[in-house]
Design goal:
Pfam families: ABC_tran. With 244 residues, this protein is an alpha/beta fold. The protein contains nine helices and nine strands. The protein has a domain of 167 residues: Rossmann fold (3-Layer(aba) Sandwich). It is globular, with a radius of gyration of 18 Å. Bound molecules: adenosine-5'-triphosphate.
Amino acid sequence: MSEVPVVEFHAVSKRFGPVSAVEDLSFTVRPGRVVGLLGRNGAGKTTSLRMLLGLTRPTAGSATVLGHSYGDLPHAARRVGVSMDAIGPTPGTTGRRDLLVWARTLGLSTARVDEVLDLVGLADSAGRKVKGYSTGMKQRLSLATALLADPELLVLDEPVNGLDPDGIRWLRGLLRSLAVEGRTVLLSSHLLAEVEQTVDDVVILQRTLRYAGELSALTSGGTERLEDRFFELAGAGSGGNTHA
Ligand SMILES: Nc1ncnc2c1ncn2[C@@H]1O[C@H](COP(=O)(O)OP(=O)(O)OP(=O)(O)O)[C@@H](O)[C@H]1O
């Protein structure tokens, strides 16, 4: 039986003037999977996620989410939860007020806001201004926004950054439970050891696609380390991207 991919990149390329950020990227994400999009700084991860969400237009190719381009997806804001730096809250607002605005936009209840604040561990700080939040607290608030509408797909750009060990463990458990419910998670990261404990599938991007498939196939069922396989596939280098 063929399954409609939750995410599909088809021959996607993006240039910013002389910089080739992403070139001929194709991969699919299956439902109920936690997928790690991995690459060095400047590898094209955020650009790819932005193209998926209609925030950046590809130079060539197309990306679809739940069978549609994001702009054509009915109820996209409720079906796709997003955590990304660019979608951050107004610093002068409180965490709770920020979520209430999102909830109103999405047609959700105040009760749901309090539920999600509790879920991400921000209930006690919800009345404080966001500008006084630590990096990890901002990350938790961003995750709360993504989770608000109980979406089918979560797209998370570097969700682990800034989280403390408790937060990382909590997030890992949360992503696993969402996948068990049949929801799908696409997260970007360069924290390979963390990703290795969290994801089912891996996409390695270094401007071009280097690997897309199951983590266990990449690491021979866990007998090899993801980090070693990453360096083999992504090549040696100290980061950044090539001009092409
Ligand atoms: N708006 C832009 N204008 C010009 N160049 C851009 C723009 N956005 C991204 N780039 C370039 O595209 C390439 C890919 O950047 P991108 O942010 O997608 O990488 P990344 O994998 O998310 O990196 P990081 O891990 O550092 O967040 C980089 O060379 C970057 O400088």
